[in-house]
Amino acid sequence: MTKKTSIHTQSLKIPKIIIITSKLISFISPKLVTLFAAKLFTTPIRHKIPKRELGMDHKSVQKMINIPAINKQINIYQYGISEKKILLVHGWSGRGTQLYKIADELIKMGYSTISFDAPGHGKSPGKMSIMTDFISIILEINKQSGPFDVAIGHSLGGMSVLNAMKKGLKVNKAIVIGSGDVVEDIIDDFVAKLELHPNIGTLLRLHFEKKYDEKMNNYSAFLAAAQATVPVLVIHDQNDPEVPVKAGINIHKHLKNGELMLTEALGHRKILGNDAVIKKIVQFTNK
Questions:
Q1: How far apart are CA 84 and CA 109, in angstroms?
Q2: pLDDT above 80: residue 41
Q3: How far is the C-alpha of 6 from the C-alpha of 244, rounded, in Å?
Q4: What is the enclosing helix (H) or strand (E) of 247?
Q5: What is the H or E stretch that residue 262 is in?
Q6: Which pLDDT band holds residue 8 (cuts at 50, 70, 90)?
């Protein structure tokens, strides 16, 4: 299949052995391969913290907190000391220090940042996670440590920020970087990466809808964007190989008060450390 992927749950190329295993299971039973795909879809890859993020890691005040809505423990980072607070939300298989370069600049501007490792990410326990976990965490951190002036999310973190706003998160502004959009597209692209028949995408979506008793497409970013009343900056790279630029464009199109910054040749992660992107984030935050 040649469909360009927008999958937020598999940052890296899926190992051949996983693809072969998926295909073998699919020959045995569509139900079994759906369960196998569901486990893969909700299991992040836990990466070791890279050296470039150690500064933020060492200088942050960190603690484990409980998120009652999902009954999970997560590690949070408070970086800098200021009453003007900004919430940072990493993407799938990321961690709370991933937006360190953005955080460094915001601290110079007199803000402090709070970020976290989602379940199964960074220093937080567990092996599995899903977008609803991210949303519950954002709402609980806002209760415990808010209010926040601005919320900034990357990839799945961007989708989660918009959905948390839809569920009551109050911020003055929001910034989403490389955000996914339509949940059904994300699931279909994931199935395409596993080289499975497209109907498995439908079975996977129905599996999650039965498990969580709600429509997965209700979490599509453009629907949450349409309800946002505060200014929202959408940043997306035109050559993002993981989340097509059409996602960012569609989110922006549905905003009442939105700005769109399109970059070139920065992909899905390099965008987080780009000087022009960080300058735009600082300008948007301060105006």
A1: 10
A2: yes
A3: 6
A4: helix 245-253
A5: strand 258-263
A6: very low
The pTM (predicted TM-score) of the whole model is 0.92
Alpha-carbon distance 66 to 73, whole Å? 4
pLDDT average, residue stretch 193-202: 94
Q: What would the mean pLDDT of 227-238 be, rounded to a whole number?
A: 98
Which ranges of 60-182 does DSSP label H, i.e. alpha helix? 100-108, 131-145, 156-166
H or E element in which residue 73 lies: strand 72-79
Neighbours of 183 (CB within 10 A): 21
Cβ within 8 Å of residue 180, ≥6 positions away: 6, 7, 8, 155, 156, 158, 159, 186, 221, 243, 247
Domains of the chain: 1-41+186-218 (no CATH), 56-182+220-286 (3.40.50.1820)
Q: How far apart are CA 73 and CA 188, in angstroms?
A: 30
pLDDT tens digits along 149-170: 999 999 999 999 999 999 999 9
